[in-house]
Design a protein that fits this description.
Layout: H1 13-32, H2 36-51, H3 57-66, H4 80-102, H5 105-125, H6 129-141, E1 147-149, E2 157-159, E3 162-163, E4 180-185, H7 192-202, E5 207-212, H8 217-222, E6 230-234, E7 240-245, H9 247-258
Length: about 260
Protein backbone atom coordinates (compact mmCIF):
# COMPACT_ATOMS: atom_id res chain seq x y z
CA UNK A 1 0.00 0.00 0.00
CA UNK A 2 1.42 3.41 -0.92
CA UNK A 3 1.46 6.05 1.75
CA UNK A 4 1.96 9.79 1.82
CA UNK A 5 2.23 12.35 4.57
CA UNK A 6 -1.05 12.77 6.38
CA UNK A 7 -2.52 16.23 7.02
CA UNK A 8 -2.40 17.64 10.55
CA UNK A 9 -5.05 15.94 12.72
CA UNK A 10 -7.94 17.95 14.16
CA UNK A 11 -10.08 18.03 17.28
CA UNK A 12 -13.10 15.79 16.43
CA UNK A 13 -15.37 17.96 18.57
CA UNK A 14 -15.15 20.69 15.94
CA UNK A 15 -16.87 18.69 13.17
CA UNK A 16 -19.47 17.40 15.65
CA UNK A 17 -20.29 20.98 16.65
CA UNK A 18 -20.59 21.84 12.97
CA UNK A 19 -22.94 18.90 12.45
CA UNK A 20 -25.09 19.88 15.44
CA UNK A 21 -25.50 23.44 14.18
CA UNK A 22 -26.21 22.15 10.67
CA UNK A 23 -28.93 19.74 11.78
CA UNK A 24 -30.65 22.33 14.02
CA UNK A 25 -30.55 24.98 11.27
CA UNK A 26 -31.94 22.68 8.57
CA UNK A 27 -34.72 21.29 10.76
CA UNK A 28 -35.62 24.84 11.79
CA UNK A 29 -35.63 25.87 8.13
CA UNK A 30 -38.07 23.06 7.31
CA UNK A 31 -40.40 24.02 10.14
CA UNK A 32 -40.35 27.69 9.13
CA UNK A 33 -40.37 27.09 5.37
CA UNK A 34 -37.09 29.01 5.00
CA UNK A 35 -35.77 27.46 1.80
CA UNK A 36 -32.81 29.88 1.59
CA UNK A 37 -31.16 28.18 4.59
CA UNK A 38 -30.15 25.22 2.39
CA UNK A 39 -28.14 27.53 0.15
CA UNK A 40 -26.52 29.27 3.12
CA UNK A 41 -25.34 26.00 4.64
CA UNK A 42 -24.25 24.63 1.28
CA UNK A 43 -21.84 27.59 1.22
CA UNK A 44 -20.86 27.05 4.89
CA UNK A 45 -20.04 23.39 4.25
CA UNK A 46 -18.26 24.20 1.00
CA UNK A 47 -15.87 26.63 2.70
CA UNK A 48 -14.85 24.04 5.30
CA UNK A 49 -14.66 21.15 2.82
CA UNK A 50 -12.69 23.04 0.17
CA UNK A 51 -10.34 25.14 2.30
CA UNK A 52 -10.18 23.47 5.70
CA UNK A 53 -11.49 24.16 9.24
CA UNK A 54 -10.07 27.69 9.38
CA UNK A 55 -12.48 28.76 6.63
CA UNK A 56 -15.66 27.06 7.83
CA UNK A 57 -17.65 29.66 9.81
CA UNK A 58 -18.97 27.23 12.44
CA UNK A 59 -15.62 25.45 12.73
CA UNK A 60 -13.88 28.80 13.15
CA UNK A 61 -16.31 29.84 15.89
CA UNK A 62 -15.65 26.52 17.62
CA UNK A 63 -11.89 27.06 17.47
CA UNK A 64 -12.12 30.60 18.78
CA UNK A 65 -14.84 30.56 21.41
CA UNK A 66 -15.72 26.99 22.42
CA UNK A 67 -12.50 24.99 22.31
CA UNK A 68 -10.57 27.28 24.71
CA UNK A 69 -13.22 26.58 27.37
CA UNK A 70 -12.94 22.80 27.03
CA UNK A 71 -10.38 20.32 28.29
CA UNK A 72 -7.81 19.23 25.67
CA UNK A 73 -9.13 16.43 23.44
CA UNK A 74 -8.00 12.92 24.35
CA UNK A 75 -7.69 12.10 20.67
CA UNK A 76 -7.37 13.83 17.35
CA UNK A 77 -8.75 12.63 14.02
CA UNK A 78 -7.75 12.73 10.41
CA UNK A 79 -9.48 15.76 8.79
CA UNK A 80 -10.09 14.06 5.44
CA UNK A 81 -13.17 11.94 6.35
CA UNK A 82 -15.17 14.86 7.84
CA UNK A 83 -14.19 17.09 4.91
CA UNK A 84 -15.43 14.40 2.52
CA UNK A 85 -18.66 14.14 4.51
CA UNK A 86 -19.05 17.93 4.27
CA UNK A 87 -18.52 17.72 0.49
CA UNK A 88 -21.35 15.15 0.26
CA UNK A 89 -23.52 17.57 2.23
CA UNK A 90 -22.63 20.35 -0.23
CA UNK A 91 -23.83 18.22 -3.13
CA UNK A 92 -27.13 17.35 -1.45
CA UNK A 93 -27.85 20.93 -0.36
CA UNK A 94 -26.86 22.36 -3.74
CA UNK A 95 -29.27 20.01 -5.50
CA UNK A 96 -31.92 20.87 -2.90
CA UNK A 97 -31.39 24.59 -3.62
CA UNK A 98 -31.76 23.96 -7.36
CA UNK A 99 -34.97 22.02 -6.71
CA UNK A 100 -36.38 24.91 -4.69
CA UNK A 101 -35.52 27.34 -7.48
CA UNK A 102 -37.22 25.12 -10.08
CA UNK A 103 -40.35 24.68 -8.01
CA UNK A 104 -39.72 21.11 -6.82
CA UNK A 105 -40.00 22.01 -3.14
CA UNK A 106 -40.92 18.48 -2.04
CA UNK A 107 -37.72 17.01 -3.44
CA UNK A 108 -35.72 19.92 -2.04
CA UNK A 109 -37.02 19.33 1.48
CA UNK A 110 -36.40 15.57 1.27
CA UNK A 111 -32.74 16.19 0.36
CA UNK A 112 -32.42 18.86 3.03
CA UNK A 113 -33.87 16.61 5.73
CA UNK A 114 -31.58 13.72 4.71
CA UNK A 115 -28.60 16.00 5.39
CA UNK A 116 -30.19 17.14 8.67
CA UNK A 117 -30.78 13.55 9.81
CA UNK A 118 -27.24 12.40 8.99
CA UNK A 119 -25.76 15.48 10.65
CA UNK A 120 -27.84 14.87 13.77
CA UNK A 121 -26.76 11.23 13.86
CA UNK A 122 -23.09 12.25 13.66
CA UNK A 123 -23.46 14.98 16.27
CA UNK A 124 -25.26 12.76 18.78
CA UNK A 125 -23.62 9.37 18.30
CA UNK A 126 -20.37 10.09 16.48
CA UNK A 127 -21.46 7.80 13.63
CA UNK A 128 -20.56 9.77 10.51
CA UNK A 129 -21.95 8.09 7.40
CA UNK A 130 -19.99 10.36 5.06
CA UNK A 131 -16.77 9.59 6.96
CA UNK A 132 -17.38 5.86 6.58
CA UNK A 133 -17.96 6.39 2.85
CA UNK A 134 -14.50 7.99 2.68
CA UNK A 135 -12.91 5.10 4.59
CA UNK A 136 -14.52 2.64 2.16
CA UNK A 137 -13.35 4.72 -0.81
CA UNK A 138 -9.76 4.77 0.47
CA UNK A 139 -9.81 1.03 1.11
CA UNK A 140 -11.15 0.25 -2.38
CA UNK A 141 -8.73 2.66 -4.02
CA UNK A 142 -5.78 1.36 -2.01
CA UNK A 143 -4.87 4.83 -0.83
CA UNK A 144 -3.17 6.23 2.22
CA UNK A 145 -3.99 5.24 5.76
CA UNK A 146 -6.13 7.52 7.87
CA UNK A 147 -4.33 8.58 11.01
CA UNK A 148 -4.97 10.28 14.31
CA UNK A 149 -2.95 10.88 17.47
CA UNK A 150 -3.81 9.20 20.75
CA UNK A 151 -2.65 11.58 23.48
CA UNK A 152 -2.98 9.09 26.32
CA UNK A 153 -1.76 5.74 25.01
CA UNK A 154 1.95 5.09 25.12
CA UNK A 155 2.31 4.19 21.46
CA UNK A 156 1.80 7.77 20.24
CA UNK A 157 0.43 8.13 16.73
CA UNK A 158 -1.87 5.37 15.61
CA UNK A 159 -4.62 4.64 13.10
CA UNK A 160 -7.94 6.39 12.81
CA UNK A 161 -10.41 5.03 15.36
CA UNK A 162 -7.64 3.99 17.75
CA UNK A 163 -8.55 5.31 21.16
CA UNK A 164 -7.26 4.85 24.66
CA UNK A 165 -9.41 2.68 26.88
CA UNK A 166 -10.28 5.62 29.14
CA UNK A 167 -9.82 3.66 32.39
CA UNK A 168 -12.03 0.73 31.39
CA UNK A 169 -10.75 -2.78 32.03
CA UNK A 170 -11.74 -6.10 30.54
CA UNK A 171 -13.36 -8.92 32.56
CA UNK A 172 -11.03 -11.15 34.56
CA UNK A 173 -11.82 -14.17 32.36
CA UNK A 174 -9.76 -12.61 29.58
CA UNK A 175 -6.73 -11.89 31.77
CA UNK A 176 -4.28 -14.77 32.06
CA UNK A 177 -0.95 -13.04 32.69
CA UNK A 178 -0.18 -12.36 29.03
CA UNK A 179 -0.92 -9.59 26.58
CA UNK A 180 -4.33 -10.16 25.04
CA UNK A 181 -6.39 -9.07 22.04
CA UNK A 182 -10.19 -9.06 22.21
CA UNK A 183 -11.61 -9.19 18.69
CA UNK A 184 -15.30 -8.25 18.42
CA UNK A 185 -16.82 -9.75 15.27
CA UNK A 186 -20.15 -10.55 13.67
CA UNK A 187 -21.13 -13.49 11.50
CA UNK A 188 -21.22 -11.17 8.49
CA UNK A 189 -17.70 -9.77 8.94
CA UNK A 190 -15.69 -11.06 5.96
CA UNK A 191 -12.40 -9.45 6.98
CA UNK A 192 -12.48 -10.53 10.65
CA UNK A 193 -10.84 -13.96 10.15
CA UNK A 194 -7.96 -12.29 8.30
CA UNK A 195 -7.54 -9.82 11.16
CA UNK A 196 -7.45 -12.62 13.73
CA UNK A 197 -4.91 -14.51 11.62
CA UNK A 198 -2.71 -11.41 11.30
CA UNK A 199 -2.73 -10.80 15.07
CA UNK A 200 -1.83 -14.40 15.83
CA UNK A 201 0.94 -14.40 13.23
CA UNK A 202 2.46 -11.13 14.49
CA UNK A 203 2.09 -11.92 18.21
CA UNK A 204 1.98 -15.70 18.70
CA UNK A 205 2.75 -15.32 22.41
CA UNK A 206 -0.36 -13.20 23.02
CA UNK A 207 -3.83 -14.49 23.82
CA UNK A 208 -6.45 -13.76 21.14
CA UNK A 209 -10.12 -13.91 22.16
CA UNK A 210 -12.68 -13.81 19.33
CA UNK A 211 -16.02 -12.49 20.60
CA UNK A 212 -19.27 -12.45 18.63
CA UNK A 213 -21.02 -9.15 19.39
CA UNK A 214 -24.37 -10.97 19.53
CA UNK A 215 -23.07 -13.10 22.42
CA UNK A 216 -21.34 -10.27 24.28
CA UNK A 217 -23.72 -7.34 23.90
CA UNK A 218 -23.01 -5.77 27.31
CA UNK A 219 -19.24 -5.87 26.86
CA UNK A 220 -19.55 -4.60 23.28
CA UNK A 221 -21.74 -1.70 24.41
CA UNK A 222 -19.31 -0.80 27.20
CA UNK A 223 -16.52 -0.43 24.66
CA UNK A 224 -18.63 1.37 22.02
CA UNK A 225 -18.32 -1.36 19.40
CA UNK A 226 -19.98 0.09 16.30
CA UNK A 227 -18.16 -1.75 13.55
CA UNK A 228 -16.56 -5.14 13.00
CA UNK A 229 -13.87 -5.84 13.71
CA UNK A 230 -13.28 -3.74 16.80
CA UNK A 231 -10.23 -4.93 18.71
CA UNK A 232 -9.08 -4.19 22.26
CA UNK A 233 -5.34 -4.55 22.88
CA UNK A 234 -5.01 -5.44 26.56
CA UNK A 235 -2.04 -5.51 28.95
CA UNK A 236 -1.48 -8.49 31.28
CA UNK A 237 -2.95 -6.38 34.10
CA UNK A 238 -6.24 -5.97 32.22
CA UNK A 239 -5.56 -2.34 31.26
CA UNK A 240 -6.78 -1.49 27.76
CA UNK A 241 -3.84 -0.14 25.78
CA UNK A 242 -5.76 0.67 22.60
CA UNK A 243 -9.19 0.30 21.05
CA UNK A 244 -8.94 -0.38 17.32
CA UNK A 245 -12.05 0.10 15.20
CA UNK A 246 -11.88 -1.40 11.74
CA UNK A 247 -9.40 -3.64 9.95
CA UNK A 248 -7.23 -0.72 8.78
CA UNK A 249 -6.72 0.40 12.38
CA UNK A 250 -5.69 -3.10 13.46
CA UNK A 251 -3.20 -3.54 10.61
CA UNK A 252 -1.71 -0.10 11.29
CA UNK A 253 -1.30 -0.92 14.98
CA UNK A 254 0.37 -4.25 14.16
CA UNK A 255 2.73 -2.42 11.83
CA UNK A 256 3.58 0.12 14.54
CA UNK A 257 4.25 -2.61 17.12
CA UNK A 258 6.32 -4.66 14.68
CA UNK A 259 8.64 -1.74 14.00
CA UNK A 260 8.54 -0.57 17.63
CA UNK A 261 7.74 2.96 16.57
CA UNK A 262 4.78 5.33 16.39
CA UNK A 263 2.74 4.63 13.25
CA UNK A 264 2.90 7.22 10.51
CA UNK A 265 0.85 7.36 7.36
Amino acid sequence: MTSTAAPAPIDPRGPRTNQAVLSIALIGAFLLGARWVSLVFAVVLFLGAAFGPSYGPVLRLYQRFIKPRLAPPTELEDPRPPRFAAAVGVVFLSVATACFALGFSGVGWVLTLIVAALAALAAISGICVGCEMYVLYVRVRGGVRLVTIDREAGHGASARDIQHGGGLRVPAEFIDGANAWLVFTTEYCAVCPRVVEAIRAAHPQDAVHVLDVADHTVLAAAHRVRRAPTVLRVAPTGEILARLAGADAVFAELDALTHNRPMVA
